[in-house]
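Translate structure to sequence.
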């Protein structure tokens, strides 16, 4: 049965019977006994996070971060990588040498020559998407943005911020962009250049858009290389794809303009971070010299967290390509294990090939969703088999889910949802398309 978190008492201890007694997190003047009080609050919060991490399944975050404790002495310093990472600055408290090393590593991974490569360490995937799509708009000022309906919300936010005409493309049940619909809409707008947001792993289903097919579709619709720009949102799969046996799903050897990836996902970081990469010749369109900093301004953010570059640099050194490859292999196996366990239990589920994201029916109980930190969309939820997720965690989750599910649906007044439309008839186990049965806990 789902347990209510003991550490979650940190959320409620100051509110007995729903009445606010005192807010422990209120900021007060420091006094003699204040330090002990602050230490107690932080210790309780650490316990709270530790407990939550034991059943954190629904989001694209790697919580296996113990090695980063080695970097704690650097918290004594303000480290700011303001401006272009390849240009020094009169602000000397920066870590740009670490940042450039991280960029060189990703440049090799994504197959772009060092003298052609430009990028920076971002605050996360959203900033990477903003930077990539801004470059596309600056290079093709009258271009139209094409993106699938299952793209990350940041893409639609970027369209609003940059005043871009946005054409939404249908998707297949896998979450992959429907190139037939893309073709139709490209042909309706042949007079304007195309800025394409390509998903190398959609947020909810992990669907991967077919880069080669998208390029072929553009060419067949009459768009030459100078009339389209492709940004690849590879938030999670940017560090998965290169380590797959069949090879990477994208590369700068193909006519793409930019790529963004999140550093706090597969690699893992104590803070949101990521990398955006593009071709050096494109960045001149937005570069501007800032005299008082003695550097170029060409990033979405001005001041940038210099610790992020060090965290990523350290993790890449500790892990190496071999370690990341092993993580990918383990995560793929765990995702397949979960998919098979759910199917054996008669639960509608789907796992895209070479992916960590297992999609299945949404539990009807809010406390269950909250306990397991699940992310939901419509009738669906998902578990992402990140490196911190163990087989034991997945076993406990499935056993808990099956046991609770028998209780939720035992009266027959409500039935498990049909997911045929969302994940395909072959993956749906509802009473119409599959077993639709309820099973014992083991």
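Result:
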């Amino acid at each position: 049965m789902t347990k209510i978190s003991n550490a979650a008492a940190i959320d409620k201890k100051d509110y007995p019977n729903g009445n606010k007694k005192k807010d422990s997190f209120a900021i007060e003047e420091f006094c003699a006994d204040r330090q002990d009080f602050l230490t107690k609050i932080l210790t309780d919060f650490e316990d709270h996070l530790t407990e939550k991490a034991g059943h954190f399944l629904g989001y694209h975050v790697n919580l296996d971060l113990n090695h980063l404790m080695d970097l704690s002495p650097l918290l004594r310093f303000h480290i700011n990588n303001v401006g272009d990472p390849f240009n020094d600055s009169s602000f000397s408290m920066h870590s740009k040498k670490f940042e450039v090393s991280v960029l060189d590593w990703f440049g090799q991974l994504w197959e772009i020559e060092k003298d052609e490569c430009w990028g920076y360490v971002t605050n996360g995937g959203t900033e990477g998407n903003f930077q990539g799509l801004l470059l596309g708009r600056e290079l093709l000022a009258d271009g139209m943005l094409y993106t699938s309906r299952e793209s990350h919300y940041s893409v639609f936010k970027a369209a609003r911020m940059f005043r871009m005409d946005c054409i939404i493309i249908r998707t297949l049940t896998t979450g992959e962009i429907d190139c037939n619909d893309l073709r139709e809409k490209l042909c309706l707008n042949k007079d304007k250049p195309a800025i394409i947001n390509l998903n190398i792993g959609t947020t909810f289903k992990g669907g991967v858009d077919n880069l080669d097919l998208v390029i072929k579709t553009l060419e067949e619709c009459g768009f030459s290389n100078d009339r389209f720009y492709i940004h690849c949102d590879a938030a999670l799969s940017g560090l998965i794809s290169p380590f797959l046996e069949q090879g990477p799903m994208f590369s700068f050897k193909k006519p793409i303009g930019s790529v963004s990836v999140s550093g706090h996902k597969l690699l893992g970081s104590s803070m949101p971070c990521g990398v955006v990469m593009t071709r050096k010749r494109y960045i001149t369109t937005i570069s501007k010299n800032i005299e008082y900093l003695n550097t170029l301004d060409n990033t979405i953010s001005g001041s940038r967290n210099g610790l992020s570059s060090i965290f990523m640099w350290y993790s890449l050194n500790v892990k190496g390509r071999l370690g990341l490859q092993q993580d990918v292999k383990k995560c793929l196996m765990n995702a397949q294990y979960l998919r098979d366990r759910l199917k054996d239990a008669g639960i509608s589920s789907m796992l895209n090939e070479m992916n960590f994201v297992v999609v299945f029916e949404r539990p009807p109980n809010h406390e269950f969703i909250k306990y397991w930190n699940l992310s939901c969309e419509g009738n669906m939820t998902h578990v992402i088999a990140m490196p911190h997720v163990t087989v034991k965690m997945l076993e406990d989750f499935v056993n808990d889910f099956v046991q609770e599910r028998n209780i939720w649906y035992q009266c027959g007044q409500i039935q498990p949802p049909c997911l045929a439309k969302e994940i395909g008839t072959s993956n749906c186990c509802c009473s119409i398309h599959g077993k639709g049965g309820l099973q014992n806990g083991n």
